[in-house]
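queue> pop job 88
queue> type: inverse folding (structure -> sequence)
queue> payload:
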């Protein structure tokens, strides 16, 4: 409901800006109105995208888990690709807005957005921004972050639940044995992962979590796919046929 209200307000402001542009009497007025319209037009587009995605997720809820198909995007999920595309899109918007407006305040805003987006892209390129990966394999799920890598076997997953926290979907994994998750790690990584799982357990009431949106995949479909592999082990055969290369 909140997204719909924000969408309607942004749409109303953007529409007002378009109407006012026909009555502007000077170039200064037109530039100010254009900046106003561009900002709220962008907000309208972003909110419209989120509303449309929510509509698609509601439809996906009706799909039986046995009908969910494996895709290459899910087989090897990469946070860096989504981060790169979203940051580059923000940078492009800021540059276009800068070239299209002469409003001093809006110009400084564009400077700030461009500098931040460029800094984040540099951070991704040099490895400062984590480029986490998640790989689906016939034996389990391989998690790889900047400072820790671990493996979660299908047989060790008791359940997976899709929940929302602050309007952000999360997958919560309940495991049969936390020791099995830690057993193949070095002492330093064991301590690090044990600390993460303890924090997750206290906050989410689950030792392991995954945020699908940062990997650009559908939370509903991902949850259903994992449930399918847990409840119907024979379906994991498709993972053997599409086995990705392990990360280095």
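queue> result:
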């Amino acid at each position: 409901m909140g997204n719909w209200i924000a969408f309607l307000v942004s749409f109303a402001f953007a529409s007002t800006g378009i109407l006012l542009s026909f009555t502007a009497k000077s170039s200064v007025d037109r530039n100010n109105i254009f900046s106003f319209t561009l900002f709220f037009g962008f907000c309208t587009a972003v909110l419209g995208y989120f509303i449309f995605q929510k509509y698609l997720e509601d439809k996906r809820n009706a799909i039986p888990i046995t009908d969910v198909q494996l895709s290459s995007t899910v087989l090897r999920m990469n946070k860096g690709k989504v981060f790169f595309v979203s940051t580059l899109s923000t940078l492009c918007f800021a540059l276009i807005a800068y070239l299209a407006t002469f409003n001093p305040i809006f110009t400084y805003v564009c400077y700030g957005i461009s500098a931040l987006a460029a800094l984040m892209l540099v951070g991704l390129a040099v490895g400062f921004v984590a480029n986490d990966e998640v790989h689906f394999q016939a034996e389990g799920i391989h998690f790889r972050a900047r400072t820790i890598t671990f493996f979660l076997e299908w047989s060790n997953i008791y359940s997976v639940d899709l929940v929302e926290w602050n309007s952000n979907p999360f997958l919560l994994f309940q495991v049969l044995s936390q020791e099995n998750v830690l057993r193949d790690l070095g002492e330093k990584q064991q301590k690090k992962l044990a600390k993460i799982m303890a924090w997750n357990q206290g906050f989410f009431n689950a030792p392991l979590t995954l945020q699908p949106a940062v990997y650009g995949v559908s939370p509903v479909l991902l949850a259903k796919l994992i449930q399918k592999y847990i409840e119907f082990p024979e379906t994991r055969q498709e993972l053997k046929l599409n086995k990705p290369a392990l990360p280095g």
